[in-house]
Amino acid sequence: MKQYATVVMTCALVAGAIAVSSPRAASRSATGICPRTVVGLVNSLNEIDGRLDVGVSYDAYGNLLGRARVAYGRIAVRTESYACLQRVGVPGERALTAYVAAYNSWSSCLDWYESPVTQNRIDWGANVPTCEKGPGHGYAFLQRQWSKAHANVRRAIEALG
Q1: What is the DSSP letter of 126?
Q2: How confident is the model at residue 99 (pLDDT cuts 50, 70, 90)?
Q3: Residue 22 lies in a domain
Q4: The model scores a pTM over 0.85
């Protein structure tokens, strides 16, 4: 476990979390465009998006991302309609990719921060930026990925109706 994993990250985005559907939703969305598995992916991505608005720890973010990956794995792409995949699946996949990139960046930053070289600099009084507050090591990239993901989650939600 990362030493600073309990530090809360907050996203600069100011967007409300909207539930797309409940876990026990009907087999298709309100518009009938996508089955429950695709709606489940969008729900899990929306949950990540909503948690970023209020702050999330590294470990909690990893758990949420794991759930989204499981939801993504449940989608039978070959049997989904073209309309569903284009309008909801593609933005969902782009959001997931951005969330994974952000997670990898955060992880790399924590590895850097906890490295002996960085810790030695801190011990000697150097002003070393943290991973959790900008400007810091990879902070701008993390924010850009979260912003991309947010925009794609919103596209998927809008397409579901």
Answers
A1: -
A2: very high
A3: no
A4: no
Nearest to 91 by CA among 25, 50, 148: 148
Q: Which residue has the higher pLDDT, 21 or 156?
A: 156
CA atoms of 14 and 121, how far apart (whole Å): 35
pLDDT tens string 105-118? 888 888 888 889 88
Does any domain span residue 21? no
**Digit-coded pLDDT (tens) for 2-25:** 433 333 333 322 233 333 433 333
Question: Do the domain assignments include residue 6?
Answer: no
Structural domain for 107, as ranges: 36-160
The string of pLDDT tens digits covering residues 51-66 is: 998 888 899 999 999 9
Query: How many distinct structural domains can be found in the chain?
Result: 1
- Listed as own residue / partner, the contacts of 36-39 with beta carbons closer than 8 Å and 24 or more positions apart are 37/71, 37/74, 37/75, 37/76, 38/75, 38/80, 38/84, 38/88, 38/89, 38/92, 39/160
User: Rg (Cα) of the chain, in Å, rounded?
Assistant: 18
Residue 3 lies in a domain: no
Q: What residue spans of the chain are helical by DSSP H?
A: 36-54, 58-73, 82-84, 90-113, 116-123, 139-160
Distance CA 86, CA 107 (A): 31
